[in-house]
Amino acid sequence: MLPATFKLCAGISYRHMRNMTGLRKNAMVAIHHELNRLAGPGPSNWISQVRRRSSLLSSRIKEEDGYSEEEMSYVKQGEDALQKAIGILSEQDGWTIETVAANGDKVLSKVLPDVGKVFKLEVMLEQHPENLYEELVGNMEQMGEWNPNVKQVKILQKIGQDTMVTHEVSAETPGNVVGPRDFVSVRCAKRRGSTCFLAGMSTQHPRMPEQRGVVRAENGPTCIVMKPCAEDPNKTKFTWLLSIDLKGWIPKTIIHKVLSQTQVDFANHLRQRMANNVSMEMAHAC
């Protein structure tokens, strides 16, 4: 489901790794080209606001001094995931509605060459993007406390401000239709202007080899985009691109139903979490 070069950074030759700064510059140019193509005319395009405020290409060349080859490879994988996810989300044609909840939450899907079926959640949340970003990125390891579909999220390694490698363990679905899975992912978190991004894809990490008795699933590219609502900046247009290979022998029809429902459930659990945070803040203020 994922190109082998995306799965394992060690596939890059050492000669090229020694010139990783040049590779990163090439990746940044590619992302910049994609953003130019995405922006287009019209204020409704979500990416145009990112470009007006700031660029995703803010260079961290100075930070790279002292990075190991392993660290640099994770940074590049995260940027690759972001670039690919932005490209998928920018294409508005070809999406099919999977489900629409009573509150307007919507899940769409499309089939992509070399990727397979991807899902896109579109919801409006009564929260500012910064608050959501802090919860999903700053408090990432607490996700198991409020999302019953997740047993655990652990940060294995952080590289700079934008990149981290995580290990996630999912809970089994009701009736154990889909048993627990675990994932090792590289994540790229960006906050540019008033729009926030959290992209990711599967990787490998020496601290987390495959576990006996647990199916190692793969994901990516994935990306959450949190953009202020044009009518009310304290609300957020929340988009979540999901691409997962759960492995095993589960029929695809069941997997697709589970994934779309998981996205709807996630939005509801996140709303409840944010509402509880507000209640706790109010209680502390009294």
UniProtKB/TrEMBL annotation:
SUPFAM superfamilies: Bet v1-like. GO terms for molecular function: cholesterol binding; cholesterol transfer activity. Pfam families: START. PROSITE patterns: START. CDD domains: START_STARD1-like. One of its GO terms (cellular component) is mitochondrion. Pathway: Steroid metabolism; cholesterol metabolism. Its main location: mitochondrion. Keywords: Lipid transport, Lipid-binding, Mitochondrion, Steroidogenesis, Transit peptide, Transport. InterPro entries: StAR, StAR-like, START-like_dom_sf, START_lipid-bd_dom. The keyword Chaperone does not apply. It is found in: Mitochondrion. GO terms for biological process: cholesterol metabolic process; intracellular cholesterol transport; oocyte maturation; regulation of steroid biosynthetic process; steroid biosynthetic process. The keyword Secreted does not apply. It catalyses: cholesterol(in) = cholesterol(out). Residues 90-279 form the START domain. It comes from the Eukaryota. Signal peptide: none annotated. Plays a key role in steroid hormone synthesis by enhancing the metabolism of cholesterol into pregnenolone. Mediates the transfer of cholesterol from the outer mitochondrial membrane to the inner mitochondrial membrane where it is cleaved to pregnenolone. May interact with TSPO. This is Steroidogenic acute regulatory protein, mitochondrial.
